[in-house]
Amino acid sequence: MKYFTLEWCEGQYGEGITEWNMTADQSYLLYLQELETNGDLSADVLKLARLPGVHDAYVMLVRHDKNRHILALNLRGGDSVMGYYDLSLRYDGADISPEHEQTLAYIARSTGYTYGPDALRHELDNTEDGRIEHRFLFHGPFWFAIRCDNLRWARLPRRNRRFARRFDRFPGGPVTTAHIEREK
Prior knowledge:
Elements: H1 6-14, H2 19-38, H3 43-49, E1 58-65, E2 70-79, E3 83-92, H4 98-110, E4 119-126, E5 132-138, E6 142-148, E7 150-158, H5 177-183
Antiparallel strand pairs: 1-2, 2-3, 3-7, 4-5, 5-6
């Protein structure tokens, strides 16, 4: 994470709302304006960066086709005021490090027992080689990043935050402790 770091996360909950917390929010919003001004990210990706309700989202399903370099991530976000929604993300030309894929698998497979880790923040950025990087920070704290050539997304309304239980929210993903514990 670049703006909402693990240190920021500790400050967020250790001392309440601090000047440091607000500075991270302001700095990230200014950075998004810079990316918009420079044309570094598409209008659609910038709209996703500013989408309300991603905070507290749960991982519903992950699919990673390594041969085709496509990663699909479905989240359940929103709240009782704005309404709930599913956020479907598709990363074309996707790369995720083995360590970050392991973290994503753990988060996905932890969802559904006592809800599991939920999203705290997400950041969108461009890379030096012109790709998109999407970083997520989840309560725990856990974080992971996905790099891609193209990012498509859709927001689908839901009546509530409830979701069906699934044995595996990341079929074909790396084996995790959460996965092993459920198989016993």
